Hints:
Layout: H1 10-33, H2 38-63, H3 65-81, H4 87-132, H5 153-163, H6 166-203, H7 209-258
Helix pairs in contact: 1-2, 2-6, 2-7, 3-6, 3-7, 4-6, 6-7
Amino acid sequence: xxxxxxxxxxxxxxxxxxxxxxxxxxxxxxxxxxxxxxxxxxxxxxxxxxxxxxxxxxxxxxxxxxxxxxxxxxxxxxxxxxxxxxxxxxxxxxxxxxxxxxxxxxxxxxxxxxxxxxxxxxxxxxxxxxxxxxxxxxxxxxxxxxxxxxxxxxxxxxxxxxxxxxxxxxxxxxxxxxxxxxxxxxxxxxxxxxxxxxxxxxxxxxxxxxxxxxxxxxxxxxxxxxxxxxxxxxxxxxxxxxxxxxxxxxxxxxxxxxx
Length: 259
């Protein structure tokens, strides 16, 4: 989506950003202008929250591209230049390094599958509505402001093709941002775990005790600084993630109780 911190893909970013912005605006317009029923409002909110969070994450990543790039580079250099002397340190580094891959595969697959199933089910519902009630026309997979009456099958297919782009936007923008945060966080956590083993090694060694402790203190200070940079970079996105997820849980709970 053109938001990778270490590469500059401005045209690709502009394409997805403009698409998400237009789609978000049409969804918000539908929320304001459509009939105010509980089902309409909640369904629109559920879609709009995910859409807004995706747009926010994409924008944050692009705006803070330089900061994230420096953070990526520093954590990478720190992890690669670190000397892993004992077997425990090496195993700890390898085990922690595997975790982001598992997270990325699971979360990307589950979110992609959920979005595809939702999209397909909504397309099927749209065809069924138009089939049994021709005057109502087709219903789009995602609720947006319909500025024309969609009664023709080809026009409906074009709108479906337009809205299907939202699926890779969610997988790459929404999930990709979370995967980036988890990856950076786990790398820092791994260094903290390795540092604890180094402290144990220095405490059990009588040679160069003061020099070893001094190096560990400096290493610990550097890790604290990386943690603060990580927190300052992602604090707003974590807040909106918490708020959006809470609202999604509330909406899901409502449907679970009422259905």
